[in-house]
Amino acid sequence: MRHIISIQLFNYGRRQRRTLSKKDLNIKIDELESSLGTIKGLEIQIGRITDEEWEEPMGPTPFPSVGTFRDWDKKLLNRYKPFYMPLCDLCCLCTYGKCDLTGDKKGACGIDQKAQQSRIVLLACCIGASTHTAHARHMLNHLLEEFGRDYLLDVALNTNVEAPHIRLVCGYKPKTIGDLEEALDYVETQLVQLTAAAHTGQEGDNLDFESKAFHAGMLDHVAMEIADISQISTLGFPKGVSEAPLAQMGFGSIDTKKAVVMCIGHNVLPSVDIIDYLMEHDLFDKVEIGGLCCTAHDNTRYDNRAKILGPISWQLRYVRSGIPDLVVIDEQCIRLDIVEEAEKIGAPVIATSEKSMMGLPDRTHDDPDAIVADLVSGRQKGVVILEPRKVGEVVVKTAMAVSPKRKEFKEPSKEKLFENMEKCRGCLECVMACPNNLPIMDAVKACAEGDLSLLSELQPLCVGCGRCESACPEDLSIISYMYAASADQCKDECFQVRVGSGAITDVEIREVGRGIVFGEIPGILALVGCANYPKGGGEVAKIAEEFLKRRFIVLATGCSAMDLATTLDEEGQNLYEQYPGVFDAGGLVNVGSCVSNSHITGATIKIANIFAKRPLRANYEEIADYVYNRVGAVGIAWGAMSQKAASIAAGCWRLGIPVIVGPHGSKYRRNLLGRKDKEEDWITLDARTGDDMYIGPVPEHLFYAAETIEEAIVMTAKLSMRPNDTTKGRAVKLSHYIDLSKKYYGTMPDDLELFVRGESDLPFTMKVELLEYLKKKGWEEGKIGMPDPTLLDRMIRRKK
Amino acid sequence: MRHIISIQLFNYGRRQRRTLSKKDLNIKIDELESSLGTIKGLEIQIGRITDEEWEEPMGPTPFPSVGTFRDWDKKLLNRYKPFYMPLCDLCCLCTYGKCDLTGDKKGACGIDQKAQQSRIVLLACCIGASTHTAHARHMLNHLLEEFGRDYLLDVALNTNVEAPHIRLVCGYKPKTIGDLEEALDYVETQLVQLTAAAHTGQEGDNLDFESKAFHAGMLDHVAMEIADISQISTLGFPKGVSEAPLAQMGFGSIDTKKAVVMCIGHNVLPSVDIIDYLMEHDLFDKVEIGGLCCTAHDNTRYDNRAKILGPISWQLRYVRSGIPDLVVIDEQCIRLDIVEEAEKIGAPVIATSEKSMMGLPDRTHDDPDAIVADLVSGRQKGVVILEPRKVGEVVVKTAMAVSPKRKEFKEPSKEKLFENMEKCRGCLECVMACPNNLPIMDAVKACAEGDLSLLSELQPLCVGCGRCESACPEDLSIISYMYAASADQCKDECFQVRVGSGAITDVEIREVGRGIVFGEIPGILALVGCANYPKGGGEVAKIAEEFLKRRFIVLATGCSAMDLATTLDEEGQNLYEQYPGVFDAGGLVNVGSCVSNSHITGATIKIANIFAKRPLRANYEEIADYVYNRVGAVGIAWGAMSQKAASIAAGCWRLGIPVIVGPHGSKYRRNLLGRKDKEEDWITLDARTGDDMYIGPVPEHLFYAAETIEEAIVMTAKLSMRPNDTTKGRAVKLSHYIDLSKKYYGTMPDDLELFVRGESDLPFTMKVELLEYLKKKGWEEGKIGMPDPTLLDRMIRRKK
Amino acid sequence: MSAKLRPGQTAEIAGPKHAMVFPKPTVVASMIKRAKRPLLVIGSKAPEIVTDDGDLIDYAIKIGKKGKLTIAATGHLIGEFKKRKAKNVYSIPFMNLGDRLRDTDWNGFDGKGHYDLVIFAGSQYYMEWLVLSGLKNFAPNLRTISLGNLYQPNASWAIGTVNHSEWMSILKEIIENLEEKK
Amino acid sequence: MSAKLRPGQTAEIAGPKHAMVFPKPTVVASMIKRAKRPLLVIGSKAPEIVTDDGDLIDYAIKIGKKGKLTIAATGHLIGEFKKRKAKNVYSIPFMNLGDRLRDTDWNGFDGKGHYDLVIFAGSQYYMEWLVLSGLKNFAPNLRTISLGNLYQPNASWAIGTVNHSEWMSILKEIIENLEEKK
Ligand code: SF4
Ligand code: SF4
Ligand code: SF4
Ligand code: SF4
Ligand code: SF4
Ligand code: SF4
Ligand code: SF4
Ligand code: SF4
Q: Which of B100, B84, B691 has its CA nearest to residue C17?
């Protein structure tokens, strides 16, 4: 047994944990005897032995605490004031309640409605960030055990800045996977502080709650970075490659003649063991391993013979199809009735995380064959196995043994799937329960009379939530009906998805930095998050295509990266096949799973650092100020619904990256909206002179729920503008904005005068037309300034 | 500047962090040169240098993770099944919702109502435990900075087991305050895992959620222990003294001619600086420092010239009295409208924690005199000062300068206080908003007509929540009216409160252990938590007195410890004055603030370890099994309302200590109730033989909301019984149970037959009467066993 | 049609499923009369609820007697019933009672089977609210009535929010109508 | 009296304060007529809502014309209004509109002052729910009407949950009654 020691340095001059910048030391002791005993194979690192390579002096804010960036946050929040839309007027968080907070009422603790709404936002962000952090901790603990603390981080090809978030936030440069732990410790400490702030009787101010939510978001990106770079480094995932290989997705990708393992969740470790087992025993021709959600992405990053079943919203549908022989759940995005649902199709469930044990017996320490026997016989409908390295054998053996016994379930007849349909009593409970008020009853009734068309039309509109079934007093299996009505089509569907490529390399950043910062590449569009929106498939692909054509850099992660694979052109090619998989204008990159979102924000940080040479180390505010004012990045999380999505978005906000969500995103309880009609809100400092300057409403919003995809598209074009755009860049962006407005709104934008700084900003071909428009609007040349924009006093070079 | 290094050891054989047990090492380097530079004053500790003193071998469960005690938890939860009472039928935690979970409906994520309720319980426990953990972190960081890592822990007189929770849970023995950090790191890591489990789509089973809530509770007690033993060790608090000194409490304790500083919260650090400043500048005769909630306790532990203003429920009343010249808030239990309320009486607010910044400007880095000037002039209604060591000067100077200017506020006239009363329009909104439906309207109307009696009768029934005012369409100041109606009485009230004595010493444990375990001391009753119940004052004191008379050991903390000081006997003596302040039969000990609750559970752990010699180190299950089966401890948190109370209670449950809460405690969404009518639920193992044995329903419940104080009293007597009671002990306990039933229920208990194992269990004086009763009930001698009770298979000494 | 229902406490909102309000007292009476195993649960506020000629306990005893109901006295209330020599009254903590009522295997205080109708009166408003919530959610087949004067959304049926004198006359009418039990 | 109000979505429960349901369509009309600065907000579902002789956009244009209302078209709906040559229509994202409506300093699209009555139709149910929630809580003096066919609790007044044909006849009646505007 080897003992390895990590060391934290406390610098007594500050309350925050700190690393020494240059006073580094590395002691190795092969054998040491002391009065206390003998120690072998001991290695002591004091400070970061890797630091020697990092000449950059420590920035102002290493390991920032809850209040460190409060001023920065409030600058943003003052421009983008929260518009609160309570999802409930009550608070029920403590037994003093429920309290009615409607309007100007206060709770028994003295809280008001705005503070309450922002408290819930904070809580959501804490839960979300905790989820990635807990995931990172589990991942890292396991990888440290398996690969050792000294295993070198190797994140992306030709890349020096391996961990932009850790460098930026924590102020150190990790070299080995062991080095990641300090950042993780820090994130955990801070998250506990934030969760505590949501306690009854702590924080009371809504903007302070918002600032804390931003803090959670910033921490979340550090945690996601840790989770992803540790797995990329150790598990052989693509390291920022261009044109990553393709993997297959969809019902049609699965060979149902094999035993089918369905992995659900976000933590690849159990799946890795399954894939390793399949490889070692040469069983890929006998077993299909398919995944849902991020585990699916990460499986294909590990081995692209793994299949992607689809995004979260297809979970119930896949189970109802009867195809899976065994279900493996790890963590996150698991339907909580999965055990019950799997039982109905005779498929055992293997739970692999302490966070999600589902009431199943823990068999971690039992003999694999005994577990297999219990599962195959049906004595147990599922088990917990917490050691990832024990999952493979049990899963593969069980799936192979169960598969032949499941014939009756694997191809359920239409009769079986349509069972009981005629019992529909027309009560409309299903419709009222449906988050989208879909016309379920009509479809069921029509189908009962032989017309399947309405049901199969519903299928693409349905997010697979199952609330209709749950509400139905006749317990009709509405999702099975929808599946059955369209099974013939979807069974053959097989799409190509580019495998997640991981972090953006330094080289790529260097190449596109200029184009992005000066606006010649009109923007970076990130399509991220879940697929819980009606018309999954069509919508996100429509956005992606629109901006790919316009030579935006389009990035995707998670379920969105899957969803946009499902739209095909006339030649049957999807966007991954039509567009190059490169981080460059007109390129479409699947970055990876949800934790890979850190690479998207990471790329914007790297643009500031690598392209613009802004100091990175513990220098958050300056970098955020740079990204906000210069990098035309926009995130769209069209299906975002979870607490994780909230915290990921919050991490974008603090960096100044606007995020658009779908209509149900209004349920996040508030938007952060700019007021383009208020000039005073858009005054920025000119770093050259310190002068205040009106810059127009760019970017107009920070967090914004769009009502329709068309609105989101036009808004994306608008939000890609930044005060720093060159005239050429602004002209390009304006032409997209105008063009897309005309296309989707059937009209010119009515606010162009706010974005045209001078005649030279005008797209050449429209100049005459636009000048006329501007004249009518009373536009003045030069009213909108072109400063060296900053929100930070300290960035001013020459004070007046 | 000195750099001190803490070291974590990773034992690669397990996933959990571990300390080496004996291979310890301590390196000091005064000066070291390496290629990287020169290091001075460096000290390296590998492992725990303190471990050499701890011969005890490592137990089975050091640093347990989320699932480690799942089996134990489920044993308890199987006996005490949760009875869920949703406070809301909906879930609104993600944007898929709101989902209707009524009955057997499921949410869009597949969750059902039971899992949802238990998820909210988990979330509450996570928030609660995070709050103490964040508090501990803030406290420890500051104390490490001020006193150094090597500062020796010195918790209690003549005490070896300084940190029972850390030893039990983490499996190491801290010697210095620096050693506490490892446990705190661990707690934070685990809490993040638990918070993550509450994310949409993670855990799905209600009992797994409950087990996780228990885990949060266990962690909470570790965190509370860290917070309290670090402050006890460094700040000169009483160290487990008997007969701790008295401090003064109440309106009457304040000399209003002095400048009055009102400190609210839980974190003593800013107050310490204020007291230090007063001492250094000899200003105690010019300034009164009074506290609310735990800060008040801890202030008096630091210096008993500090005053206790009262429990949380008096917060608004104190402000309305106009007496405070300045309000200092630290963290927790702060009314969130405090800035607004303080402004109304012209008192500035100093916020001192990042967790509670209340929208005030951060002046941490400004010149104290400049801050004072801004506050005194009213340019700022309050400020944030995050450095505790900067608070004293600002607070004292500001209070002294503000005080003379506040004459008009300090003694508001009755007319002023009763203002607008006649505007009451009789709409009843106040009554409907009141958590206790108090007859506010009638009282206001009567008062408007000159009859103050109804209002002053309301005062003791009112929990000071302010919801009535907030609901009143005329914005009537109902709380001010209540205060005014009874100001004349309460202004002179001054009560003696024994200063918090801190941890129970090993010596005390040794002396009472036997009596408790064999039932001769009928029980330990802990009165803890908030005072948010009608009739604050009377109620808790009534319970305390009843059991003091019956020679229970009565412990109190937090607001309960204050509240029970307010009841006086004919001679004007309260319970602190009537009963000895010793940890022994018939003694009443104020243990301290809320974090001192860890000493109460710690005492039960120490009984198992010190008295019964059960191994302590990383041996949670065995100790909990011992406490549950043998230590007749019962907690009453009559006014519990917060998330902290939930997690504190959860820490008791996992140790097998029953907790009773007041009626509004039913709003915690579930009780954990035994079914005495089901014999099969009360089968326990006999450790001597491994036989199953029926032991009767002892203790009957684990978490239980009582409807009335009388019910709670009788139930306390009942819950003090344990299977291990000697016949003499059981007879004593039964006689109290019978006696209290007769007194408060006016009748014999109707379930005595379940507690009488044999004739010798019967209280001698009632033998005849009871035998007759038992005969009627069909009682059989010996049906109820007297095993060496355990729930753990591995405790069986001789297997059948 | 107005959506305004006068609540019992401002924030009492429970969920989509909530109590029907009795159109008239006679319906309550006939519901009780039709029940096979009705149970009357009396909470500890009962002695504070003053009636013309006594308190709610007296009314409860009358209802129990006339409607042949078993009575469960919660809190420490049993003593009051004993004093007044009421029969068929059992003492049980309110939480325990809720817990047992949701258990379909429970056979009642007398072991003769589960109750089919449970009627609540005299409890702390919010505690009754919560016990009824537990029953609404987890005892779907149990019918519950709240006789309190503040609307209890989680019951199956409730009297609704009425003032004291209205309430008293409703209770009286219920008692009167119980007389006619065959 | 039954407490059952037919909701627009099962879990739409908002809080103690919720919309009144119009007793009859003429009340809507007269409310609009009495308003000084009414605004009609039309959401992006409008083209999908088919009427006898067109869609909800046609109705909206009629209401706008007859009641002299400014129209705000949310989402990408403005194009439809332009096509139909409607006057006095402004395009604005729904979220922005909500945000401005709660700002008492906002002077409307034409700068002539805030609106005193805002009428919603054609929006995604839950999005309207939320915007109305924002207004209910933070624009206490703004009166709001939901003309949707699912009950919107957060409006000041709502049509309530009605089926398509009932809804259409209500809308028609409103339009007819607007004619008589002096
Ligand atoms: S906040 Fe959510 S859980 Fe609480 S009362 Fe409202 S809808 Fe129910
Ligand atoms: S946290 Fe505050 S508003 Fe919420 S229920 Fe408790 S007292 Fe009421
Ligand atoms: S499963 Fe589909 S149809 Fe059913 S409620 Fe959910 S979204 Fe609507
Ligand atoms: S809920 Fe069920 S029975 Fe009612 S309309 Fe829908 S499908 Fe038919
Ligand atoms: S967490 Fe589940 S039950 Fe709650 S709102 Fe989201 S989908 Fe619905
Ligand atoms: S302040 Fe007192 S009277 Fe007012 S609502 Fe709260 S408890 Fe009732
Ligand atoms: S809410 Fe105000 S106006 Fe209404 S009855 Fe109560 S005190 Fe009077
Ligand atoms: S007992 Fe409750 S109210 Fe009092 S200080 Fe502790 S947590 Fe706060």
A: B100
**The residue type at A16:** Q
State the closest ligand 2 atom to the C-alpha of A200, by its place in the atom list counted from 1: 1
Coil vs helix vs strand at D146:
strand
- B557 pairs with which residues across the strands? B592
Nearest C-alpha of chain C: how many angstroms from D13?
A: 7
Return the ligand number nearest the Cα of B638.
Answer: 8
Assess if CATH 3.40.50.1010 describes domain B495-794.
no
Residue B714 pLDDT: 98
Is residue C6 situated within a structural domain?
no
| Nearest CA owner, ligand 3 atom 8 | A434
Residue D99 burial (CB < 10 Å; 0-12/13-18/19+)?
buried
What's the CA gap between B601 and B221, in Å, rounded?
Answer: 8
Global model pTM greater than 0.80: yes
Give the per-residue SS3 of A497-516.
EECCCCCCCHHHHHHHHHHH
Find the residue in D nearest to C8 (Cα): D16
* pLDDT tens by residue, A227-265: 999 999 999 999 998 889 999 999 999 999 999 999 999
A180 pLDDT exceeds 60?
A: yes
Q: Give tens-digit pLDDT for A405-426.
A: 999 899 888 888 999 999 999 9
Instruction: Tell me: pLDDT of A690 over 90.
Output: yes
Give start-end residues of each CATH 3.40.50.2030 domain in chain A: 245-410, 495-794
Q: Domain with D43 in it: what CATH number?
A: 3.40.50.1220
Q: Give how many domains chain C has, as a whole number.
A: 1
Instruction: Extract the residue ranges of chain B whose pLDDT is less than 70.
Output: 1-53, 536-537, 799-800
pLDDT digit string, tens, across residues C14-68: 788 899 999 999 999 999 999 999 999 999 999 999 999 899 999 999 999 999 9
Neighbours of D, requiring at least 3 CB pairs below 8 Å, are A, B, C
In a domain, C1, yes or no: no
Name the minimum distance, in Å, from the CA of A533 to any CA of chain C.
Answer: 25
* Ramachandran quadrant class, D54 (left: phi over 0; alpha: psi -120 to 50; beta: rest): left
Cα–Cα distance between B383 and B362 in angstroms, integer? 6
- D182 lies in a domain? no
State which CATH number among 1.10.10.10, 3.20.20.70, 3.40.50.2030, 3.40.50.11290 fits the domain covering B245-410.
Answer: 3.40.50.2030
Give the pLDDT confidence score for residue D179 in this predicted structure: 77
Does some domain include residue C12?
no
Beta bridge partners of A705: A661
Chain D residues whose beta carbon lies within 8 Å of the beta carbon of residue B99? 11
Q: Residue B319: in which H helix or E strand, if any?
A: helix B315-320
* Helix H or strand E segment including B344: helix B338-344
Å between C14 CA and nearest CA of chain D: 9
Cβ partners under 8 Å of residue B295, min gap 6? B263, B264, B265, B266, B267, B268, B271, B330, B593
Structural domain boundaries, residue D71? 19-176
Confirm or reject: Cβ of B88 under 6 Å from ligand 1: yes
Cα gap A471→A434, rounded to integer Å? 9
The fold of the A70-241 domain, in CATH, is Substrate Binding Domain Of Dnak; Chain:A; Domain 2 (1.20.1270)
CB-CB neighbors (< 8 A) of D13 in chain C: 13, 15-16
User: Is B538 within 8 Å of B567 (Cβ atoms)?
Assistant: yes
Do B286 and B395 touch, CB atoms closer than 8 A?
no
Residue among B677, B604, B790, B755 at smallest CA distance from B168: B604
**Is the distance from CB of A698 to CB of A734 less than 8 angstroms?**
no
| pLDDT above 50 (res C181) | no
CA of B111 from ligand 3 middle (Å) equals: 15
